[in-house]
Inverse folding.
């Protein structure tokens, strides 16, 4: 596997030209899989936490697609997570959960733990850049998560602000518009190539963050570099290194 | 002037029941008048900075009213500030400013200084509550301001998110909806009684913050308590005292 080494010149241009770093959150900044497995082990140890986490997440893109396509009106991720959860409970032997227990379990997405490098990396990047989230998660979820995990966002941005789920171009262009910047002065940092493709199509810079364990140890993810990304970093501290922070 | 002393019981109820503190920003958290006077003295010392700051701010409510009434579509405060500024330049002997100078001057609203107690008070409140802005200022303005002044918001909320300028009820109710809370678990903290009246009408709790010098030493503001507010605080540190932080 070749890791691209941007020339010092191109890195210098990126450092000078980039003003805002917008981060994907689920998988990129926080470990949704590990967090859900740990919470299931604590709450419902009889359930296969790995299978449960993967099944819940598998419903995520199809649920958002129902909003993107117009089949559903605007619905926040909290509600989409709940619709998916309702469909999984019987299958995982959890049909007996009462409403309060279902509400609490659904909010596990507000309680996700950061990857070990995320807080330190973001704190370094924040000294030189404006750092914000750009997640399909809703504002309340992202704010509760940031407060609990210590994510030091300058601004919490979400698909909820733009009423457009990534990869809708309006979500990416919305960040540039919020900060009155041309798109190339905003960099999307994400662990998902399809998210980065969407951002690049709108003129944003892109940085790939390796998260090989996003889906757990049983399903290690290919984190090969893609030459179209401006940067490729092992983690968020490595991104800070690349950007001279 | 009598300062209301809420009974320990009512204060205990407020402390237990309130989850989110939403702050008005211009005048409440930052000193727009003093900041603009200081910047004008540095940039254009021949101009009467006090008169200029007051004239610029005087255009603010009428400009927003043109949006609220539907005469104008949604326009951010940055653009409204610029429209007002354009109308003042000749009157203050600044018609010679070129475009870059006008853009820079207009962004003085991104560079406002916090009142001396704001950062320390917010840091104390943040330990116990979720703290957010709820300002008619736009997201980019509020984020740049917070970064420069060190305002430790958990989340930057703005009329821009709700596409509704305060006192439109949707701005106040929008905060409660973002956090999935009933309105009475959100408290608006502001130095303006009309803002607090709007919040109270939507079921939010209210805290008045005294800012007698908001309009400068030449126009000291009445900061008498209003009995309908839940709390009345000398400044944001005093609010932290009242809320047991």
């Amino acid at each position: 596997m070749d890791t691209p080494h941007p020339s010092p010149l191109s890195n210098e241009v990126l450092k000078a030209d980039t003003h805002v770093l917008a981060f994907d959150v689920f998988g990129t900044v926080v470990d949704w899989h590990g967090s859900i497995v740990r919470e299931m082990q604590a709450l419902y140890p009889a359930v296969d936490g790995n299978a449960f986490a993967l099944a819940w997440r598998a419903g995520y893109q199809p649920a958002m697609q129902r909003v993107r396509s117009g089949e559903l009106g605007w619905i926040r991720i909290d509600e989409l997570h709940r619709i998916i959860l309702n469909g999984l409970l019987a299958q995982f032997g959890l049909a007996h959960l009462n409403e309060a227990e279902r509400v609490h379990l659904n909010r596990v997405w507000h309680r996700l733990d950061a990857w070990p490098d995320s807080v330190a990396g973001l704190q370094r990047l924040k000294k030189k850049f404006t750092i914000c989230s750009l997640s399909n998660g809703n504002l309340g979820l992202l704010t509760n998560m940031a407060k609990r995990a210590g994510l030091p966002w300058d601004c919490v941005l979400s698909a909820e602000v733009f009423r457009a789920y990534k990869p809708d171009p309006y979500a990416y262009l919305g960040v540039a518009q919020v900060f009155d910047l041309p798109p190339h002065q905003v960099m999307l940092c994400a662990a998902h190539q399809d998210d980065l493709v969407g951002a690049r199509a709108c003129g944003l810079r892109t940085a790939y963050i390796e998260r090989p364990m996003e889906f757990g140890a049983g399903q290690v993810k290919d984190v090969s570099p893609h030459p179209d990304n401006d940067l490729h970093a092992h983690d968020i501290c490595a991104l800070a290194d690349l950007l001279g922070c």
